[in-house]
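3.2 Worked example (two chains)
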Amino acid sequence: MNVAIELTELTKTYGIRRGLDGLTLRVRAGEVFGYLGPNGAGKSTTIRLMLDLIRPTGGTVRVLGKDPRAEAVRLHRRIGYLAGDFAVDGRQRAGECLSFLAGLRGGVPAARITELAERLELDLAARIKSLSKGNRQKVGLIQAFMHQPELLILDEPTSGLDPLVQQTFLQMVAEAKAAGQTVFMSSHIMSEVEAIADRVAIIREGRLAAVDTVAALRDRSLLRVRIDFAETITVEEFAALPGITGLVVTGTGDGTTLTCRVDGAPDALIKAAARHTVTGLRAESQDLEELFHAYYAGENPTGS
């Protein structure tokens, strides 16, 4: 298996403040990898260490098989990077800025820049200082994608973008993957990466909380169930069933409602409910956003 990014026991401290704590992570070549965590969790610190913009307190970093410190210049030519705080000279026009950056990378066809600008609806003639945050972000996206690098490292790439442009961005990521490029994308929004990522890592307070495919994370999510009964039921009848947590029974007399979470197959719950007259049934999977927040809060996301 080819590895695009390999982090081993990576640690970074800022005085008494911890940035990363023994992070070990491998990103495969050619995959789209989502790196999730709230602001301050260590996402940007990880990226800056990968690019040798800051130095680790401990551990090792390998990007595209190279040491970012020893081979920074060669390595940066093979990478497209969008910083979370992307900033350039506001006096330049967007097109002038992108042409200058293209020249630093050995040249990019003007048609490529124009094509990306049209897709993202960016006015290349506008001065950067006059652009909104969303339009400045488009400049950042274009400079990262335009030279079709082996590795794209994108820190909060959709910050400030409207929903339609976000969809265009996701299409661009899908095209990069189809071309064999690796995409490492940090975000604090689970829904932003779940549609496009092959795998997702969740970082919590500088430590890796989970890493898996989106499908596997979905499989770990709980089933939320609501059952309406025609008659009165008791908590005791259902509380001992396997996988049941958060059980609540409300209502008396004309009907009762049971709500709970189910970890695993709901077979036992359904069979127990079938001993009564069921007037309503609703079941839905836990939202991935909720699962993400459960990991961040340090809870067991499956409730077991």
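3.2.1 Second chain
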Amino acid sequence: MKLIVGLGNPGRKYQGTRHNVGFDVLSKLAGLLAAPGAKTKFEGEMTEGHSGGQKLVLLWPHTYMNASGRSVRKAKDFFKLDDADLLVVCDDLNLPTGRLRIRPRGSAGGQKGLADIIRMLGGEEFARLRVGIDRPPPGWQTPDYVLGRFDSQEQSLIDPAIDRAARAVMDWAVDDMTAVMSRYNAKAD
């Protein structure tokens, strides 16, 4: 069993924003897995599906980005999972829009949702899949940028990245991390 967590903020106000890319990847993944409708659990929404013989639990924390660790901790403890069975999907300001980077562990890199999960789990030994949203343009404040929506040019990059990210999650669940990193960390065609 693997726990896949998509980071974002709950509510209509945040749908389609840069900060909610993790939610978008999980929604795409749920569709690919033909997962049933999500139910409220672990201070979030949760559903389950199967890929390559592996059970995947998908979790959208509704604790807001900066408190995501509470929801993740509850789910991880409930299912009695090791950190190695957890993958967190989130946005990343330090990657160009649409670029993916999957890693088996690491720091928060300035991502506050990841930072809270690291704090709540007491370590960095879980996988993360970062989806690039690029740096704010000059004159933009970071909170305004991450809570803003993609323009049409950015959307043309992020839509295929969300598709690739959902497939990367399915591969991560059943494949060797080195192979998955090689496949998805390269620049998209």
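3.3 Remarks
Helices lie at 21-32, 68-79, 112-121, 142-146, 152-174, 177-184.
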